[in-house]
Amino acid sequence: MNCPRCGQKLRISKKDPSYGLCDNCRKRFKIKQQEGYYTDDMYDSSTDSHKKKYANLPPSKVRSSREKEMRQGYDDLLAIKNEKQGIGSTILSAVIILLAVAIVGVGVYIVYTKVSKDNETKSKSTTTTTTDKSQKTDTTDTTNGTDDSAALVTRDLAEGDYADTGEGFFSVSTPSGSSADGSVPVLYVSAAETLSEISYSASGINGGSLSYIYIDGYLNSKAQLAESEGTLDIQSTAISSGTHKVEVVQYENDDPAAAMTMYKTCSYEIKEQ
Prior knowledge:
Layout: E1 11-12, E2 19-22, E3 27-30, H1 60-137, E4 140-141, E5 146-147, H2 148-151, E6 169-174, E7 177-178, E8 186-189, E9 195-203, E10 211-215, E11 218-223, E12 228-235, E13 242-251, E14 260-272
């Protein structure tokens, strides 16, 4: 095809074969696309200029190298993803194992607690049964009004056959009477009572010394007796059924470890209502 201006033959553009270039006019013209229009003399066969080429397309070696780099990078990315997934799976497995162990531990604790409570209940039941049997087999000493367990406790006043010593007179009384005439007055108490009292009367006793009042050998109270009356609180073994011995003692220098200077005794009896 010739240039429409100067008539010189057009040269096919290497960038776009659909255009013809005029070297004389320095213009390009659109070549009509007609079948059989192009001829071999219109192309430079050495450069194969009739084929469409792209100026920004890198050589095949460069493309291959870059493709390898991109493929390697993609493979590395997949490897990192798989590694993260593996770590996530490991953590999830560890959490599941810990939860399972915790559940088993709670179950064991519940079972252990239940078994312990059952054993404790059985132990208490056995202890109660043993105590009941022991209480049934215990006997009460009706002579001095104390039981066997009380006898094991050390008395404040040692047992002995003490003779009436010193001046004065001491007696106890209940609603049933007084020991002044040598009798044993009786006091009735209910099984639920844990504390009661009896009256006493003293006359002619040395008021310059302290008097120690014992019931069944155990110190009940201390008083400065002379011509006086009062009450004695009785509890524990002193209120149990039976006869109880009351002893009034004075010591030299008010020292229980010293010799007796006065000793008086009488008794009362407890009966259950």
